[in-house]
Amino acid sequence: MGTTGAGQRAAPAQNDFEVNTMAKTMDSLRIKIEKREPMSKSGVKSLRKEGWLPASMSSRGEDSLSFSIKQDELNRSLAQNGRMAVFKLALGRKTYNAMLREVQYAPVTRECLHVTFQRIALDEVTKADVAIRPLGREDITHRQLEFLQHLDTLPVTGLPGDIPNYIELEVSHMEAGDNLTVGDAALPKGITTDLEPDRVIFTVSHPRTQEEPAEEAAETAGVEAAAAEAPEAKE
């Protein structure tokens, strides 16, 4: 383990990266889309008011495809299958396997403005940034220790169907002075990361007390007072 610090306890053997087992169905993954021609800002605004989102899909070696997608259908599919699912985008008689790559939001209202998909092949590896979720964080804060998460996502590579929606990492065993790195946990079968094994994901420390700044200020004041009372050197 990469956790370090006095009085540390070894993490339970089962506390490796755990993958969520969210059920996916073909019906919920299939979303109808409509081809979209270039539109003015007012046209895009009207599109959103009607419940559609402007979207695009990039394909390796091909031009990007612009289309519209029903926002409620996308939200429903995301809620059931997760962000890392392989969606079936149906345009007429053609269906594209695609993964969601980016969602753009308005900075103030947080209104969804645009979604970007990446067309993928089910038998070819792809890359994705998977969210990291700490398990047992409340056990650490209950002991009045400070918990810090340095990485929110982990870049991984694998077949589209093997990439998890998120990675859960057990942290309840961590003590003050411990850190948990990428190399501390086993990734799901078929999933790899090119991130350095010593990259820190979580750290735990004692909270900084209120007395520490006061003590430092008192020491500084004492030094300054002593210097003021010292007699001036004669030339």
Task: Report a brief summary of the structure.
With 235 residues, the chain is an alpha+beta fold.
Fold and architecture overview:
- By secondary structure, this protein is α+β, with helices and mostly antiparallel strands.
- The chain has two domains: 26-81 and 87-121, Ribosomal Protein L25, Chain P (Beta Barrel), CATH 2.40.240; 127-205, Ribosomal protein L25, C-terminal domain (RNA Polymerase Alpha Subunit, Chain A, domain 2, Beta Complex).
- It contains five helices and 13 strands.
- The strands form three sheets. It has a six-stranded mixed barrel with strand order 2-4-3-7-6-5.
What does the secondary structure layout of this molecule look like, with pairings?
Elements: E1 18-19, H1 26-29, E2 30-35, H2 41-49, E3 52-59, E4 62-70, H3 71-81, E5 87-91, E6 94-105, E7 112-119, E8 126-135, H4 137-142, E9 146-149, E10 153-158, E11 166-170, E12 179-181, E13 200-205, H5 211-229
Parallel strand pairs: 2-5, 3-7, 8-11
Antiparallel strand pairs: 1-11, 2-4, 3-4, 5-6, 6-7, 8-10, 9-13, 12-13
- Given the structure, what is the number of helices? 5
What fraction, in percent, of the residue positions are helical? Answer: 10-25%
Low-confidence stretches: 4-23
Total tally of structural domains: 2
Spatial order of strands in the largest sheet: 2-4-3-7-6-5
Question: What is the H/E string?
Answer: EHEHEEHEEEEHEEEEEH
Please summarize the sheet with the most strands.
Answer: 6 strands, mixed, barrel
